[in-house]
Backbone:
């Protein structure tokens, strides 16, 4: 796969992972589903998935570039992803429903 | 003085942030533009709009140009008063020839440094330079303002205030204040992680501004911290000139020691010697880099003690694929071409310094990361701008009751340093395309258009922020947004008329330096229109909540440049 594609996936992974981390928080879960917060198990899984996704994103960055460059790309990806997730939550929170497929809306 | 630590931090954050925030605004915004300084240069000097070039032959092309350089009139004038007796007529002893280039430079600038025999300080020198088209060796006139690397970039770290290095000290102080603001901001913020993704645009202006302030500050916290810190590291020599003040003897001793270790002569021998083929040395250096698995673009070439038996040639690799700017220098004896010294891999401390300096100055080839830097810089600008708005919103009603003009003054300054700064930038671009190229004082007019437009924006801002003194909203934001929109489109159209390089053409041939800036200008215009419309709707709606919900946005738009 081309470097550009790998970097795009790395950014996407950061966005998805931050989405999961946000859903693990009660307030954001309510914003997205308009329902009671997730159970403790669900929240823990969302957190695990989120952190694993961020780690995978770093791995992708490291595959493309020298470690010194990759670490900077990853840190900047984190910043962009956090902002993207915050804006999605502000304007169209329902989009984050895509991140938990199979769950029915209440 | 205060009841608790958090209140102390709040006071610190508010007042240092406010006073030095205006300087920080300049540093962040023009820093973001400087990521593409070379591209602005291409936009402003149409004769140099061609692809970046590799290093041409030194022996046949560069050497004659180096030999034809003479010390510039300005550098000789500056030297007056620092010599014993009269100024020499000729400067025959060349201390060094240097050439620095990156993967984004189509033209190359060659520099020569000359000894001044009767200088009071023997280390003093005069210098000259020449810019060439490396494809032909033809000299390119060097009298035009390089908008990016000669104006925006120095503005970013010196505010173009050169008297007593005042600008550099102010920016350094502001960088320090930035570090303080970040730490105190984290202390003040009670729910850093719990509110990491929180932005509530439909709440009160004061609340949603604070959300945006926290979001833009926290999301890019590592970026803000690293750039303020590395900026200070880079400029440390200005703030602590110890090497040539308190520690001068130690510095001298170190140079002698270095000479012993590397075998690179510190002084001239006083015996004339010819210069062997530098092309052969460059080829040898490339071969040695290739053996270490590194690509071989030359970033910096220095010939020291030109024409002397002690002369040597240093070839440094451009850090195009690394964060560090340059590295793996290989030094050759100028008269024979034999390798004198090959630099070992940098030590841990040296490696960290290279990384810190390189990550800020970024001459690497990584377009994704460059754009992420622009984004980070603009996010910093948004963070500072929302800080201003929050300050105003929090106080304006109280100030109106008390008849104090504080909120109004800050409001006018905020408008000046957000939209006004963008207008000044656009005004420079427009002037660059309108002024005739034959005009000898062109550079002066271009810079005056920048400062003049900024001054006008300041006056407009003070004139139109009267309502803030009554606790009302001001129309200064939306009016300046409209000016931005018109001027940004005008700059793109003028570029088309004066050079023929319209977007369809530059995109078709893939000439990104110009296409990118045109696209960014159009994006800026679009964002400015959206922001202005948004402000008008807010003002018209019954539950109007005060001015400038999206003040940050124009800055974000220009960040795309």
Residues:
């Amino acid at each position: 796969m081309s470097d550009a594609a790998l970097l795009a996936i790395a950014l996407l992974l950061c966005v998805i992972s931050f989405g999961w981390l946000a859903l693990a928080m009660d307030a954001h879960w309510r914003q997205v589903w308009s329902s009671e917060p997730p159970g403790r198990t669900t929240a823990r899984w969302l957190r695990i998935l989120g952190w694993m996704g961020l780690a995978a994103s770093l791995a992708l960055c490291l595959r493309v570039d020298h470690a010194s460059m990759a670490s900077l790309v990853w840190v900047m990806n984190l910043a962009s992803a956090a902002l993207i997730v915050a804006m999605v939550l502000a304007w169209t929170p329902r989009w984050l429903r895509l991140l938990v497929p199979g769950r029915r809306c209440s | 003085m205060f009841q608790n630590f958090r209140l102390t931090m709040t006071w610190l954050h508010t007042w240092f942030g406010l006073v030095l925030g205006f300087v920080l605004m300049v540093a962040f915004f023009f820093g973001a533009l400087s990521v593409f300084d070379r591209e602005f240069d291409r936009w402003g000097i149409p004769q140099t709009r061609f692809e970046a070039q590799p290093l041409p032959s030194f022996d046949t092309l560069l050497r004659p140009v180096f030999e034809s350089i003479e010390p510039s009139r300005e550098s000789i004038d500056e030297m007056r008063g620092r010599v014993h007796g009269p100024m020499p007529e000729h400067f025959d002893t060349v201390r060094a020839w240097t050439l620095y280039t990156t993967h984004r430079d189509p033209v190359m600038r060659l520099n020569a440094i000359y000894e001044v025999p009767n200088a009071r300080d023997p280390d003093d020198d005069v210098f000259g330079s020449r810019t060439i088209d490396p494809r032909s060796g033809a000299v390119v006139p060097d009298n035009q303002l390089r908008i990016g690397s000669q104006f925006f970039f120095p503005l970013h770290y010196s505010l173009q205030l050169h008297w007593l290095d005042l600008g550099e000290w102010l920016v350094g102080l502001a960088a320090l204040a930035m570090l303080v603001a970040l730490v105190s901001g984290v202390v003040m913020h009670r729910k850093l992680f719990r509110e990491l993704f929180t932005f509530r645009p439909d709440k009160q202006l004061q609340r949603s501004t604070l959300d945006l302030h926290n979001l833009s500050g926290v999301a890019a916290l590592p970026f803000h911290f690293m750039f303020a810190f590395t900026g200070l590291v880079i400029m440390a020599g200005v703030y602590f000139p110890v090497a040539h003040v308190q520690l001068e003897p130690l510095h001298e001793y170190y140079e002698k020691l270095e000479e012993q270790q590397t075998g690179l002569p510190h002084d001239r021998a006083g015996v004339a010697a010819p210069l062997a083929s530098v092309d052969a040395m460059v080829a040898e250096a490339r071969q040695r880099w290739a053996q270490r698995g590194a690509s071989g673009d030359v970033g910096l070439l220095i010939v020291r003690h030109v024409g002397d038996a002690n002369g040597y040639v240093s070839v440094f690799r451009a850090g195009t694929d690394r964060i560090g700017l340059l590295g793996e220098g290989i030094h050759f004896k100028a008269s024979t071409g034999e390798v004198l010294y090959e630099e070992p891999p940098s030590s841990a401390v040296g490696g960290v310094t290279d990384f810190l300096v390189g990550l800020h100055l970024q001459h690497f080839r990584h377009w994704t990361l460059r754009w992420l830097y622009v984004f980070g810089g603009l996010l910093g600008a948004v963070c500072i701008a929302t800080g201003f708005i929050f300050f105003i919103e929090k106080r304006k009603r109280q100030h109106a009751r008390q008849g104090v003009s504080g909120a109004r003054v800050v409001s006018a300054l905020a408008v000046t340093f957000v939209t006004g700064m963008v207008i000044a930038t656009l005004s420079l671009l427009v002037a660059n395309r309108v002024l005739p190229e034959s005009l000898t004082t062109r550079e002066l007019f271009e810079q005056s258009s920048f400062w003049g437009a900024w001054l006008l924006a300041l006056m407009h801002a003070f004139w139109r922020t009267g309502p803030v003194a009554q606790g009302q909203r001001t129309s200064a934001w939306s009016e300046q947004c409209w000016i931005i929109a018109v001027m940004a489109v005008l700059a793109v159209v003028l570029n088309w008329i004066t050079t023929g390089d319209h977007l369809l053409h530059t995109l078709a041939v893939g000439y990104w330096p110009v296409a990118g800036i045109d696209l960014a200008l159009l994006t800026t215009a679009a964002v400015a229109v959206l922001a202005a419309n948004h402000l008008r709707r807010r003002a018209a709606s019954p539950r109007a909540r005060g001015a400038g919900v999206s003040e940050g946005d124009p800055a974000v738009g220009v960040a795309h440049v």
